[in-house]
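Lab manual, section 2.4: Encoding a predicted structure.

Procedure: take the sequence of the chain (112 residues), apply the prediction step described in section 2.3, and record the output as structure tokens. A sample record is shown.
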Amino acid sequence: DVQLQASGGGLVQFGGSLRLSCAASGFTFSSNYMEWLRQAPGKGLERLLGINTRGGSIDYADSVKGRFTISRDNAENTLYLQTNNLKPEDTAVYYCSNLKVRGQGTLVTVSS
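Recorded output:
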């Protein structure tokens, strides 16, 4: 079974940083395009960034441009999201996806 488990969330102050991880299993991670998404309380799912198999990234959300960076370690089957200069509006559950499956998320709460 495909499993995508995000971790690394928590409570952080305004302007802080977190590094989120997504452990992948059950499919060939290195051959798959991967994405990070988030869902804020009471809002819909927002696509943030994507990364191709060679490590090239694609920005989807202007709201995180210049503050969030996506990366991957194909040897470790792990996807990362470095989040910097966090704002209260970044409070959300963050998910990773291989476009077919969206895994369990991790909650990020940013206090003002």
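Check your result against the sample. The beta strands are 3-7, 10-13, 18-25, 34-39, 45-51, 57-59, 68-73, 78-83, 92-97, 106-111.
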